[in-house]
Design goal:
alpha+beta, four-stranded mixed sheet, about 30% helix, elongated
Length: about 240
């Protein structure tokens, strides 16, 4: 069975014993058929709202920095940023090695370093990134060259519109989308009991997705312990007496 917007919508219509759509009349749907089309997108959007780290929404973002500029905007399609992954790419032409940026609290930046935004000739290779209150980001120090900045992020789903559009959610979870769209269909009709039954099944499907895609990320714990080094062969610990 194909995995397109048309096919998923028809699965939802079939649950309501409604007439299926075809590729020829899909764009001109009417009434409840259109509501079912909307319900498919509503279900997909809800799945993305329930979790901010789906692997199928992962994207590596790249930004060419502007010399003298501190603050930057994240992409319009990005809904979650992993600030631990900010890095400057190695560029022999610009004379920069690969650099992993450290995360700085915004208040710390304002208290100690915001003067850089009104001062010239203090730029360099950025070593800190901070999240701004408007959910964008800034760098300290500001770049003095057009370095390439990269970071990992998670992007919003693109609304399905054409009959042949394919969801970014893997096909193995098509029934989760259908369950959600069916629940919304009953909600549109004002059938609260059927809505509740189908929405509960929808939520169970999302939990199953989370167990497969999210929980596996915590299968091990990385130690961050840094042992103290000995000094001139002496013991690390002070001796008594």
């Amino acid at each position: 069975m194909a995995y397109t917007y048309l096919d998923i919508t028809n699965e939802v219509l079939a649950r309501f014993n409604e007439v299926s759509l075809t590729s020829a009349n899909f764009a001109n749907s009417r009434g409840f058929q259109t509501q079912c089309k909307n319900a498919v997108n509503d279900a997909i959007n809800y799945i993305f709202q329930r979790e901010f780290g789906w692997s199928f929404s992962h994207s590596e973002q790249s930004e060419t920095l502007v010399a003298g500029t501190t603050r930057y905007s994240i992409g319009a399609t990005v809904y979650n940023v992993d600030y631990e992954t900010f890095r400057i790419s190695k560029d022999n032409t610009l004379g920069v090695a690969g650099v992993t940026l450290r995360v700085m609290d915004y208040n710390q930046y304002v208290d100690k370093f915001i003067d850089q935004e009104t001062t010239s000739d203090v730029g360099g290779v950025p070593i800190y990134v901070f999240r701004t209150p408007d959910n964008n980001y800034g760098l300290y120090p500001y770049p003095d060259k057009a370095y390439t900045l990269k970071y990992d992020a998670y992007v919003k789903p693109t609304a399905l519109s054409a009959a042949t559009d394919v969801p970014t959610i893997p096909e193995q979870f098509r029934q989760v989308i259908v369950d959600g769209a069916t629940a919304y269909g009953y909600q549109y009709r004002g059938e609260a009991q059927q809505y509740g039954i189908n929405f509960a099944r929808f939520e169970e499907g999302i939990k199953h997705m989370q167990s497969l895609f999210i929980n596996r990320n915590y299968s091990y714990v990385r130690s961050t312990y840094i042992p103290r080094s000995q000094r001139y062969g002496a013991s690390v610990f002070p001796t008594g007496g």
